Amino acid sequence: MAANDWDWNPEKQKSIVVQQVDAIAIYTNVRGEIVIRQQGFGGEEDAIVAFPRAYAETIIAALTAEAGKS
């Protein structure tokens, strides 16, 4: 396939193994909460989830369980 014939449409390209993902940052805010922030797409506002540090292990366990589902 010539470089100029490339089509990023995943329905047409079986070789695409990772779809586009907006940037994700994890940090601690001034209140000591852990923040997960995803960059807004196309100029939209960022998506933000903030939670007390005490819930971090519970959230990690839930994410790990979800990631392990088939």
Task: Report what the structure shows.
The chain has one helix at 56-67, and strands at residues 24-28, 34-38, 47-51. It has 70 residues and is α+β, with helices and mostly antiparallel strands. The protein has one domain (21-70). It has a three-stranded antiparallel sheet with strand order 1-2-3, with no helix packed on it. The two termini are 33 Å apart.
Order of helices and strands: EEEH
Number of domains: 1
The span between the termini is: 33 Å
Largest sheet, in brief, is: 3 strands, antiparallel
Q: What's the rounded overall pLDDT mean?
A: 88
User: How large, in whole angstroms, is the Cα Rg?
Assistant: 18 Å
Name the structural class. alpha+beta
Low-pLDDT residue spans = none
Strand order of the largest sheet: 1-2-3
Which bin fits the share of residues in helices?
10-25%
β-strand percent reads 15-25%
Number of strands: 3
**Tell me, what's the shape?**
flat
Helix run count: 1
Summarize the structure.
The chain is α+β, with helices and mostly antiparallel strands. It has one domain (21-70).
Please write out the topology:
Layout (H helix, E strand, L loop, with lengths): L23 E5 L5 E5 L8 E5 L4 H12 L3
Antiparallel strand pairs: 1-2, 2-3
Keyword list:
alpha+beta; single chain; about 70 residues; 3-stranded antiparallel beta sheet; flat; 1 helix; about 15% helix
